[in-house]
Amino acid sequence: MKKSRIVCVGNSLVPEDAAGLHVFNELCSRSCSSHVEIVNGALGGMDLLPLFFGCDTVILVDRVIGFAEAGSVLKLDRETFCAGWQGTYSPASELLYLLKSLPYLGIDPMPTVWLIGIEGLGGEVIRRAADMALEAVGEA
After folding, report:
1. Do 58 and 4 touch, CB atoms closer than 8 A?
2. Contact 52, 107 (CB under 8 A)
């Protein structure tokens, strides 16, 4: 059976950067099959690297800025996120560094990586992001 991880990233001390953690709480309130692991990725960055080993799919859930209108939820592949990033240093740039580094780190086999990007906040946005993360691992 394929193993998948949904890794929710965010900063609980900064409300506008806590979207991923809200999705984590939403996912924990739902029933998921045993092949899906829901992880609180906290502030993310290179500390998430071990989570890319031993699974077929990694879904990262985090706030994004500048990819779509406020209230949007996007499913971006690793390459699209890396190419579309226009920001300067921010907590999300550590996630960008990790994603850009993955092909060079000897992960074998390399999992399929998706980013569920959240533009803005609100209960409906959080539910849509949780739904999209579960769809990406075949749970919906």
Report:
1. yes
2. yes
Amino acid letter for position 74: L
Does domain 4-136 fall under CATH 2.60.40.1930? My reply is no
Alpha-carbon span 16 to 12, nearest angstrom = 9
What parts of the chain have a pLDDT lower than 50? 88-90, 140
| E strand or H helix at 96 | helix 91-101
Q: Model's pTM, two decimal places?
A: 0.87
SS3 (DSSP) at 7: strand
User: What whole-number percentage of the chain has pLDDT above 70?
Assistant: 91
Q: Domain boundaries in the chain?
A: 4-136
Say how far apart CA 33 and CA 121 lie, in whole Å: 27
Give the model confidence (pLDDT) of 42-58 as tens digits. Answer: 887 888 999 999 999 99
